[in-house]
Amino acid sequence: MATPLSDERPQLTLVKETPETARVFEFEKRPRPAWMMSGEQLRQWAVYAKDNTVDAVRFHATHSPYYLGWSVRGYRRLCLRWWEARQDDYRQQLATAKQMIREAKSQPRGSTRAADEAKARALRTVLRAEYRGHKRQHWIRTGVSGLIVVAGATTAVTMGSWWVQLLLALAVIFTGAYFGRPEEPAVKPIQAPTRTSHLGEETMRRVLVESGAISEKRAEEVRGVGLPHTEGPGIAYEVDMPSGIPAAVAVTKKQQVAAALAVHQDWLDLEVGAIESRLKIWVASDDPFSVVRRSPLLDQKGEINTFRDGIPVAFGKRGNPIILHVRDTSLIVGGATRRGKGMLLANILLGVAKDPWVNIRIFDGKGTAEHNLYAPLMATFVKRNPERLAIVSRLIKEEIDRRSDLLDEHGYEKIDDSNYAEVMKLLGGREVFIVDELATYTPKGTSRWDEEITENLSQIAAVGAALGVLLISITQVPEVDVIRGRLRQNHVGRAAMKTESGTASNTILGDGMTGQGYDASKIPIDQAGRFWLATPETGVIQGRSYLVTADDKRQVAAEAREIREHAVRLPWQWHDPIEAQLTAETGITSAAGGPGGKGRIGSAPVALTLLDHLIDAAAGTGRDEATRAEVFAYLATVDDRYGYRVDETDGQYNARVGKVLAAAMKAEGLDIKAVKVSTAEGKEARGFRLDDLIAAR
Ligand SMILES: Nc1ncnc2c1ncn2[C@@H]1O[C@H](COP(=O)(O)OP(=O)(O)OP(=O)(O)O)[C@@H](O)[C@H]1O
């Protein structure tokens, strides 16, 4: 018995498998517009369309004076076209035929001349006939279309109602306007707008999402507050973050925000606004420190009260002046060589020089001529003399005690704006005590007095400010053995010019500052004078000092001299207890730079080398370089061998002192080559650059 076929077995068939029917391509369903699907949407659409129409009518109505102008231009263009069509290029062709006749006539008599002339004349005749025909045709076409237009218009005007006339008038204007459209687009597209110039709500949404401060789905919740507006060289704006997200989140993403805006993070300010969720942003589309600015003090005449008003020494990111209150913040300025420490000091000096109540005392450890111009104003001015610094710093410490007692005796708690004038008279002014180049004085082993100097300066920095004694220390060697821990800590204000390394930057600004983004080693090399400043009043900010030229210094020194003379505050006009004591102890004064007026004083000055003199000579020109002639002239003031001899010609003099200099340089082991420099008149000459000389030191 045959077993029944199991269900699982495939059915056998003799017919080949039928191929699958070809798939019909399926279109995606066409989406229907929302207004078709719902009455509500349709009503909205109608309102929208109506508003648009009203807007369009209003816009075009207010622009009708333009369209009338276009229309006039359009009809003029049509007339020109009509005239050109009438001429076609027959005139040109006729002119060519006439030229051909002239050329044929100019040929020598003969068969070719006659034949060429005949051919040209025949051509002219044919062209004239064709031209006449063309003009006739043109007139007929003009006549017919003109007749239709005139008849139609007359009928419409005479028989049509007012709206037909209106339509006709509009058609006339429209036709003219159409042909009279301006050839250039009326509004030129703004040229390559920078991304930052579009700072607004939309940009901020994108930027905050791209920087990772908020998620994409919350971007719509970012709201602009007020309008983006220009502030200094950039644009300022405020936005409210989505609820629950503090603005501080965006502030921590400064680098990413800067990247999203396509700017450097130094060109950007991010701050938390009046409420936690409000973000204040300021951004420039270019480096705000790439410019050089002049001190506003140079235009200010008369005396200055630096205690009350401070000194504008630099400009900030937004072009705003950075005011240094030389009042209760001792300051340390550090940075690599030629990076602008001296320029910041020059700005401070502009202010204090014109404040008659400030006793300026400078200990210049570099020994250059940088401060010589101010010498006549200075209560104390000494170059490279550690022993004298040790004495003066001790005397200033004693002066602090004297001041404290005096204030106490007279019932003053401290110096402030209300008692300023009386207290100044009582104390004999404020002290601004500047040590320019700590490395000459404080590192271990530089002199017998290094410990004493470091200790005295640390104490003055710590307690002096409250009693009107302010210390400003400068160093190009920001290393811990130069600015020993206590000395640095006691300087409340710190300014770091470009440094060689992040460690050097931290030595000035404080440990861990690079980690927070305050790294002076990252300051661009081509922006001398730029710095990070940390003071209690300013917080940590960036700035660039104003440029002060040698001429500016001269001008200010002269003004300051008058101001101080008038106020009876020039060094010899008032009793200075510190200089009196110093003279008693050492037998020599250093008021106004001492007897020579250049700060070279004392029984044991650091011996000045030839290199010191060369540096003085180059710095003294105000151009940071000196020609050989200028160097010789300077050396002649310190060494007789460089002076002119009787009967010596210029050539002989130059040859002789050139040899003396070469021999002296060799003896000191100085290997500095004379290079091309500019003279004061801008010509070329051989000489020495200050940078090279300082590098040699
Ligand atoms: N704010 C500034 N704007 C423009 N140029 C500046 C500025 N500051 C400094 N410079 C330029 O840099 C040069 C060096 O500046 P400065 O003499 O102040 O440096 P320094 O750090 O004191 O040098 P040194 O190491 O010799 O003490 C200046 O001669 C000037 O040309």
From TrEMBL:
Tell me the protein's name: FtsK/SpoIIIE domain-containing protein
Tell me which SUPFAM superfamilies the record gives: P-loop containing nucleoside triphosphate hydrolases
Q: Source species, please? A: Streptomyces violaceus
Give the stretches traversing the membrane. Answer: 138-156
Q: Where does ATP bind?
A: 335-342
Keywords, in A-Z order: ATP-binding, Membrane, Nucleotide-binding, Transmembrane, Transmembrane helix
Q: Does the keyword Hydrolase apply?
A: no
Domain (FtsK) spans: 319-506
**Database matches in InterPro entries:** FtsK/SpoIIIE/SftA (IPR050206), FtsK_dom (IPR002543), P-loop_NTPase (IPR027417)
Gene3D superfamilies, per this entry? P-loop containing nucleotide triphosphate hydrolases
